[in-house]
């Protein structure tokens, strides 16, 4: 487009061509501009030359008005900074100009480059360099805005107000691109400038909500992420802080690593020594799998271990008719059955991840699917939590209250009573000491009764009434300390050769699939927590495959459960603000060391069951809360999402209750809190195959399975936009090759990556 458009220039052109001035009394007939497929950016220039089109946004109107004002004021600016050459030109004043689309008044959409031509400018422009920062750009923007308001330039005809709305781009840290705003701002009308000022004020008001000023940066997809992290994913604060942070990570996960064996092993018929051995084995496997996942999995600072996802199938198998009346070696038979099922399920999970099929499955897994599924995992044990904790209310209720005080009152009030370690283990230590003093003081001593006598051998009626209280309240009931060895190394197949059955293997395959869905949400959420971009689908698939390999190790060693990413770890990162990968690895090394000391497992195995059940009540409630918090990534006010989550959760609890009522015999034999997990043997499904009936009835009696099935089908069939559904935004493979931060966070170690380059 030509740089000059004044009346003198047009008059000189007419005289040279010998054209009469009266011929231009009528406006010339403009020929229409017809775009072609092979669009040439220079065609706009030629069309503007032929038609005499002048844009109000190119600076000509501003220059004319400024020249008049300068002539009146007597000023003569003789120097101008040339942005193209970097020198001051005293003869011709130039300014870089973006060529404007003559039809729509917008910059050209050609990504190959922006055509810059010198345009006559009346006022000197101070050079805007990168070092000048935000102040220089805002100064130029404000000066142009004031001039535009004084002139009152009218908008270009034919432009819809909606077409002028330009959304400012944001970078990874949520900061606006001011250089692009400087180019776009001259195009906005005064009305749009007013809206723009109102938007800036609104953002400033929102920024005041978050402490520390400036607001929290927006992550990928515009989601808010935590801003204040003590330690990043690749930070190394030193060995002493790493040890402290590592212990803090694993102490907060005691509910999954310790209390599951305390609850499950006695129900399987195991002794106190077996409970101590399973706890030591679980510590060893959790340490090994955490190190493997931090090097060869997603490489996020996530702890691997026994999850509550596996608790329901364990209770389902141990309450089957085959093992219900078994008396001799019941624990070993059930453990071998669980080992075989976990090994088969882990092989399926490995093939799902390492084959890359999980990267295709990711498009169907969204927050609306993950949220009710994780919430159903915690809600599934509401009939088991307090019925077990209520066996000794004098220690269970104080423990729940103390945990709530440490986690809510101390952390969100002005009182400086926040404990140095996590609140859950500190509360357990205090209440455990309180229960020890009650036991030593004779609070649970009954005349003629002994806690060492099994309940089945007690003949006195008065002692039978107090047997349940002594078992759940006394701290000296367990003989694990007397029977456990000081040094014991857990080894594979320590319970015998695994037993493989189709029914239990099918159940464990579905359970590990649910664990994979849970891990997908944990990967995405934890990546935002540690200020990293989400992993690529390939990295997610690699992490799921590594979780399958970790479950294979758990099946070989015989922990009774599989291995997966612990959802509670996300809450630990959010509270402690520590996301160092080395802290998690060092804590895993300490976990492996303590697993070799048999007395450590014996001490943990001697925790009273009422104390363990009270802690699990809080942990299960936390799992429900973490699951529901995943909905923040979708539109929570959407009726579609509310309906899907509500229907999935309600039917996920109601359908298993319907299946569980087909067991009249079980209600007479098993305790009330085990009745919901005995529906696999006596369910409504009857196909003629006992193994298939057991598997289908067992799956339909588990809340998380029904909830996942309903949420998955509804979310992927009911219409909804990507923004409404809150579809997970994963990084692309190009980001992994171009962004050094993503490559440093998720890439395999150099030697390992060289060996697996073919993959």
TrEMBL record:
Signal peptide: none annotated. Its main location: membrane. Residues 1-10 have a biased composition (Polar residues). It is a multi-pass membrane protein. One of its GO terms (cellular component) is membrane. Residues 66-78, 88-100 have a biased composition (Basic and acidic residues). The keyword Transmembrane applies. GO terms for molecular function: transmembrane transporter activity. Pfam families: Xan_ur_permease. Residues 1-39, 64-116 are annotated as: Disordered. InterPro entries: NCS2. Belongs to the nucleobase:cation symporter-2 (NCS2) (TC 2.A.40) family. This is Nucleobase cation symporter 2 family.
């Amino acid at each position: 487009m030509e740089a000059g458009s004044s009346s003198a220039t047009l008059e000189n052109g007419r005289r040279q061509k010998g054209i009469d001035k009266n011929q231009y009394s009528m406006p010339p007939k403009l020929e229409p501009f017809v775009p072609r497929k092979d669009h040439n950016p220079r065609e706009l220039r030629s069309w503007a030359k032929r038609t005499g089109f002048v844009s109000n946004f190119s600076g000509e109107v501003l220059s004319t008005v400024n020249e008049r004002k300068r002539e009146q004021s007597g000023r003569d600016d003789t120097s101008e900074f040339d942005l193209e050459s970097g020198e001051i030109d005293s003869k011709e004043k130039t300014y870089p100009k973006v060529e404007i689309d003559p039809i729509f008044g917008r910059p050209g959409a050609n990504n190959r480059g922006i055509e810059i031509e010198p345009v006559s400018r009346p006022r000197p422009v101070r050079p805007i360099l990168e070092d000048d920062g935000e102040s220089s750009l805002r100064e130029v923007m404000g000066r142009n805005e004031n001039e535009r308001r004084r002139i009152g330039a009218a908008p270009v005809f034919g432009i819809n107000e909606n077409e002028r709305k330009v959304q400012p781009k944001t970078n990874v840290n949520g900061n606006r691109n001011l250089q692009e705003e400087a180019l776009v701002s001259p195009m906005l009308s005064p009305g749009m400038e007013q809206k723009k000022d109102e938007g800036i004020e609104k953002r400033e008001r929102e920024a005041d909500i978050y402490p520390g000023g400036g607001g929290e940066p927006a992550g990928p997809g515009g989601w808010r992420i935590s801003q204040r992290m003590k330690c990043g994913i690749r930070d190394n604060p030193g060995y002493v802080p790493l040890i402290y942070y590592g212990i803090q990570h694993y102490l907060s996960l005691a509910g999954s690593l310790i209390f599951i064996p305390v609850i499950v092993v006695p129900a399987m018929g195991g002794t106190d020594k077996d409970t101590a051995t399973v706890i030591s084995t679980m510590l060893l496997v959790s340490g090994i799998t955490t190190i493997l996942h931090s090097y060869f999995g997603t490489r996020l600072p996530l702890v691997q271990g026994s999850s509550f996802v596996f608790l329901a199938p364990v209770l389902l198998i141990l309450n089957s008719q085959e093992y219900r009346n078994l008396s001799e070696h019941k624990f070993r038979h059930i453990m071998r059955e669980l080992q075989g099922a976990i090994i088969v399920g882990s092989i399926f999970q490995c093939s799902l991840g390492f084959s890359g099929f999980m990267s295709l499955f990711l498009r169907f897994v969204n927050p609306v699917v993950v949220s009710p599924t994780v919430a159903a995992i915690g809600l599934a044990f509401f009939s088991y939590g307090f019925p077990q904790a209520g066996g000794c209310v004098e220690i269970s209720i104080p423990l729940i209250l103390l945990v709530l005080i440490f986690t809510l009152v101390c952390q969100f009030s002005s009182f400086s009573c926040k404990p140095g370690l996590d609140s859950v283990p500190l509360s357990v230590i205090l209440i455990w000491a309180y229960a020890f003093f009650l036991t030593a003081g004779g609070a649970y001593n009954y005349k003629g009764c002994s806690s060492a006598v099994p309940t089945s051998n007690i003949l006195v009626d008065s002692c039978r009434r107090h047997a349940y209280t002594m078992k759940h309240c006394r701290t000296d009931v367990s003989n694990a300390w007397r029977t456990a060895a000081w040094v014991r190394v857990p080894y594979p197949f320590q319970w015998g050769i695994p037993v493989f059955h189709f029914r239990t293997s099918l159940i464990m395959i579905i359970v590990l699939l649910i664990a994979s869905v849970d891990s997908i949400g944990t990967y995405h959420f934890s990546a935002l927590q540690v200020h990293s971009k989400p992993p690529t689908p390939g990295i997610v698939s690699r992490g799921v495959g590594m979780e399958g390999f970790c479950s294979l190790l758990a099946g070989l060693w015989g922990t009774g459960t599989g291995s997966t990413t612990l959802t509670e770890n996300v809450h630990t990162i959010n509270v402690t603000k520590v996301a160092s990968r080395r802290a998690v690895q060092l804590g895993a090394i300490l976990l492996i060391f303590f697993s070799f000391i048999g007395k450590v497992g014996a001490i943990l195995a001697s925790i009273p069951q009422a104390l363990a059940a009270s802690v699990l009540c809080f942990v299960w409630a936390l799992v429900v809360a973490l699951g529901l918090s995943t909905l923040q990534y979708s539109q929570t006010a959407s009726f579609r999402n509310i309906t899907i989550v509500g229907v999935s959760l309600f039917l996920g609890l109601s359908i298993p209750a319907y299946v569980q009522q087909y067991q009249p015999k079980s209600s007479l034999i098993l305790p009330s809190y085990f009745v919901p997990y005995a529906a696999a043997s006596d369910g409504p499904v009857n196909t003629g195959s006992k193994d298939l009936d057991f598997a289908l009835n067992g799956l339909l009696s588990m809340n998380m399975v029904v909830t996942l099935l309903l949420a998955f089908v509804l979310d992927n069939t009911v219409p909804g936009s990507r923004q409404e559904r809150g579809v997970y935004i994963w990084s692309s493979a190009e980001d992994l090759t171009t962004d050094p931060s993503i490559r440093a966070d998720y890439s395999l170690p150099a030697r390992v990556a060289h060996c697996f380059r073919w993959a």
